[in-house]
Amino acid sequence: MFIDILKKLFTNTSTGRRGVTGPTETAIKREWENINILLSQKGPSQLRQALISADKTLDNALRDVAPGTTMGERLKATKDRFDPYIYNKVWEAHKVRNNLVHEAGYEPPHYMLTEAVENLRKGLDNLGIRV
């Protein structure tokens, strides 16, 4: 029984991995360099693209550690991997991204886009990926 508890703590039962693969982490770090460039440009379209890319990078990490066909399913499956506050902030950021992509005319303010990107970065940090 003790061994089963340890296994649950240190592995993801669906994939057998606690963290992302090396190639995934490398790709995420490379993509985050592009996200930082977009953020530094501070234009509305660059900030929108930064959010879309940041959301995609977190989803790529989640694909390595959780089952599910959508990011939402993978987020739900990894809830225990996140600080509860960060988990909620990641969900909010993902919702902003979804609204941006799926709602015509949705134009969130600058601060909302930059905050969403930062919250997705914190989500990666909770998964052990430092960008």
Corresponding CATH superfamily: Nucleotidyltransferases  domain 2
- Report the β-strand fraction as a percent range: under 5%
> How does the major sheet shape up?
none
Distance between the termini: 37 Å
Proportion in helices? over 70%
Outline, from the CA principal axes?
Answer: globular
Secondary structure tally, helices: 6
- How many β-strands, per DSSP? 0
Count of discrete structural domains:
1
Q: What structural class do helix, strand and pairing data support?
A: mainly alpha
Using the CA coordinates, give the radius of gyration.
Answer: 15 Å
Overall CATH architecture:
Up-down Bundle
Description of the molecule:
- The protein is built from six helices and no strands.
- It is globular.
- The longest helix has 22 residues.
- The protein starts with a helix and ends in a 5-residue tail after the last helix.
- By secondary structure, the chain is mostly helical.
- Helices cover 72% and strands 0% of the residues.
- It has one domain: Four Helix Bundle (Hemerythrin (Met), subunit A) (Up-down Bundle).
- The N terminus is likely disordered.
